[in-house]
Amino acid sequence: MLTHISVDGFRSLSNFEMEIRPGLNILIGPNGSGKSNIISYFQFLSRLARTGLSDAVSLTGGAGAFFQKTGETKYTNRVTAVTRGLTFVEEIDKSDRAGWMLYEYRFGIHASERFDSIIFSEQEIRLSSIGGVRSDVPAMDALQHEYFDWDLVIESSTTPAHARVVKLSDGWLAREASKAISRKDILDQFDRDISEASFESISLIRLRSRFFNPILYIAGDFLGGETLSIDPAEVKRPEDSAREPGIRSDGSGLAATLWHMLNEPTYKAYDYPYYSRPRNFQYWRGRGWAKVYKQLQSLIQLVNSQIQNVYVTNEPFDNQLKIKVRMEGPRGDVDLPLSAMSDGTIKWASLITAILTHRSIFAIEEPENFLHPLMLTEIVKLMRESTSEKFSFVIMTTHSETLLNAASPYDVIVVSMEHGITRGRRPANPDQLLREIQETGFGLGHYYLAGDLSDA
């Protein structure tokens, strides 16, 4: 998962830094403070993991909405950023290579004078294997990136144009010892791999090289940055039976995901997703799809107790997946199409499925706009459970007192705008604030609406 971002030159983010913690990271602050710009940056990272730089910028609003505005018609033409993270690497049939990996990805993006050409002016990836088992997550405070002894460092630059391996430790070489691969063989292969890619327009995290597969795990961490903005009309559409499972940003993919849960064996659960291309869909270890599906059914019943079951049929004529809902009726159960359900029920079903199946981060802007107040507390509980088990996090914006009352002072990041620049900080005294909440009985939402978190 990502643990830290530092951004300069992206919209209102100038010398902006944010620590990311496992679990909930709730952005609070007035309208216009830049919360959406923070969310948009995570969306940009997600798109970098899927496509080239130009397309990623275009999908994030284009050059006019990407670079920081410095005047009425002027923009800065450079964005620099550092993204840090910690992820568990596990290669198929290579259990001896499993372990935690620390990483850091830096880039500089430069636009031409007319903003008609946007390139990576420089990139750098740093990786270090720190071992351990999946259940033993390294202490975050002990991981000091500035002084870490990296195993692998790869950089690219346009001035002068080059891409090279700066450091390749003996520890990394030991990973290939069983194949008797030499340092020279690895470097020669890297030169052949990189020559086929344009490092000016493609992120190094998408580098395909037989010796640097763990790099693709970074792409996997980036993938979840898309904001969930669920459109019931998209969720209702029948889906092709060949569609990959996973909830998309518009909420679609529900039929394919439920079909996968009901029909795929656990060994085909996409637990090793990065050799063909990254996916943001993950099987929960130790639970099995049956338990996840059962939990999903019970959560759907929270919004409508008459729902007995939600299942998927594959129409033999056109191989279209269609969701059916079995409802309790006065004369017995009746099966209805998903389209017969309310928009609120459909959004809830898609959202909780995304939470239960996403591998990495995802962002939700103001869930109170489409969820019943009673469901906001449930969604916070579900997110805590999901992120704890998967070692991941959620970025969320909200103005809801109900949602914040279910949150902790450790979850929130107070966002403000100072002279056109977005600033974000966590409460300085979360312990004291938590004691006050416990003593007074008022929730965190009360303190937020009263304006007390601005100086906390």
What would your notes on this structure say?
- It contains 13 helices and 16 strands.
- It has 456 residues and is of the alpha+beta class.
- A 7-stranded antiparallel beta sheet has the order 2-1-4-5-6-7-8. The chain has a 5-stranded mixed beta sheet with strand order 13-14-3-15-16. Strands 9, 10, 11 and 12 form a 4-stranded antiparallel beta sheet that branches.
- Strand 11 and strand 12 form a beta hairpin.
- The two termini are 28 Å apart.
- The relative contact order is 0.14.
- About 3% of the residues have low confidence.
- This is ATPase AAA-type core domain-containing protein.
- InterPro entries: ATPase_AAA_core, Bact_Antivir_Def_Nuclease, P-loop_NTPase, RecF-like.
- Pfam families: AAA_21.
What is the count of helical runs?
13
Arithmetic mean pLDDT: 85
Strand percent estimate: 25-35%
* Coarse morphology: globular
Based on CA atoms alone, the radius of gyration comes out at: 23 Å
Indicate the structural class.
alpha+beta
**Which spans have pLDDT < 50 for at least 5 consecutive residues?**
266-278
Q: How would you describe this structure in keywords?
A:
ATP hydrolysis activity; RecF-like; single chain; globular; 456 residues; P-loop_NTPase; 16 strands
Put the structure in a nutshell.
With 456 residues, the protein is of the alpha+beta class.
